[in-house]
Amino acid sequence: MKVLVLGSGGREHALVWKLRQSPRVSKVYCAPGNGGIAAEAECLPADLKNLDSLVNVARRVEPDLTVVGPELPLTLGLVDRFTSQGWKTFGPTAAAAQLESSKSFAKLFMQRHHIPSAPYAICKSREEVRDALPHFHMPVVIKADGLAAGKGVVISKSKDEASAVASEMLSGKMLGEAGLCVVLEECLQGEEVSFLVLCDGDRVAPLVPAQDYKRIGDGDTGPNTGGMGAYSSQALLDAQMQNWIVQHIARPVVEGMQAEGVEYKGILYCGLMLTARGPMVLEFNCRFGDPEAQAILMRLESDLVEALEAAIEGRVSEGDFRWSKDASACVVMASGGYPGTFEAGKKISGLEEVERMEQVKVFHAGTSARDDTYFTAGGRVLDITARASDLKTAVARAYEAVAKIGFEGAHYRKDIAAKAGKR
Ligand code: AMP
């Protein structure tokens, strides 16, 4: 069968790599892909913001299965459009993807279905923010309602600062339309975990849990990024806690959606805070996380195509995934200056040596290729991912590989998975 993956980052490279391992897959396409992905899939130009462009790609390829990486095409209705053309496509419809595309929708939905989450207020004007703020202790979290590529959440220490941030968002100057409505939220304390489940509109099957590192600097300092690393291990959540999350969070989401006339099919990513009051939802995403997908898929031993098809065809079961007991770690190497401005086009060295390392895989996040040489082409450049029987060794292996790779300005966090050691 022919599989089409939509997207251009490390997550999509990991999807391509895993899908290619299925004995049923004869050819993998990726649109638009990147320099590194092109070594494992035929890449086709495409504009992920434009559904017509993606429809044109599918007309050319005639895929037997399409897998969508990023949230934007999903929220624009890609699955609705592709499905109406008769193309089998993995992911939620635009209506279901509102859980990610609108924070106010997600908060109201969680309230209706008694899913644990922080107390909140939805505000559409400065006056509403002024009236709501006295009900919150500081610090308070201010979130833009719409998609903001990781830039839509600010934690404010004082009411004055909170009010100024909310005004800036509401004015449209900070984040455009995404900020014209804001959600104020109580600031939760605890450890964050990413818990993903596969959904078929009715049932859910959990993936292995992961933890990601969003800030640029060691010790969770500096600005937020698209993600600087992640790890996955058995020890992150015990079986009892996983069952609790499935019962009280994941299943109620799918059943709640169903009760409201919407089928949730695809990956449901629950961003959770493990608080003293129990796990609470920080956010939902309607697709694999990046770089969590790299760490999670590194541990997957069964056929990904089978699992994705089970979701589309409404026959998900706990047995859809077979996982390795190994742990995995992913370290992101970024361009100098990222997450601010950075220069592209720097030559990357050391990749051949790392290719020879066992249980290590380099997923390309932002590279271009010319005459067998790779160059940087994005803020996040490479996702060095390793697997081993224990987390400490997986992390050590990932950093051993990172040390062999070089490009001008390269930087990365040195403390991926360090929190696991402290627990
Ligand atoms: P979100 O896009 O909603 O996941 O927010 C991005 C990040 O902001 C999360 O991963 C958390 O680190 C932080 N965050 C969001 N909501 C809260 C909250 N209510 N309390 C504390 N931190 C939060």
Unreliable stretches: none
Global shape: globular
What share of the residues does DSSP label as strand, in percent?
25-35%
Please tally the β strands and state the result.
Answer: 20
Helix/strand structural class: alpha+beta
* Share in helix: 25-40%
- Attached small molecules: adenosine monophosphate
Q: In order across it, which strands form the biggest sheet?
A: 3-2-1-4-5
How would you sum up the major sheet? 5 strands, parallel
Count of DSSP H/I helices: 14
CA radius of gyration is 21 Å
Span between termini: 44 Å
Could you report the average pLDDT, rounded to the nearest whole number?
A: 96
Could you walk me through the main structural features you see in this protein, from its secondary elements to its overall organization?
The protein is 30% helix and 28% strand. It has helices at 10-20, 51-61, 71-75, 78-84, 98-101, 103-112, 126-132, 159-170, 239-259, 292-297, 304-312, 351-355, 391-404, 418-422, and strands spanning 2-7, 27-32, 42-43, 65-68, 89-90, 120-123, 140-144, 153-156, 182-186, 191-200, 204-206, 211-217, 221-232, 265-275, 278-285, 327-334, 360-364, 367-370, 373-376, 380-388. It has 14 helices and 20 strands. It is globular. The model has no long low-confidence stretch (mean pLDDT 96). The chain has 423 residues and is of the alpha+beta class. It has a five-stranded parallel sheet with strand order 3-2-1-4-5, sandwiched between helices. Strands 12-13-16-20-17 form a five-stranded antiparallel sheet. A four-stranded antiparallel sheet has the order 6-9-7-8, sandwiched between helices.
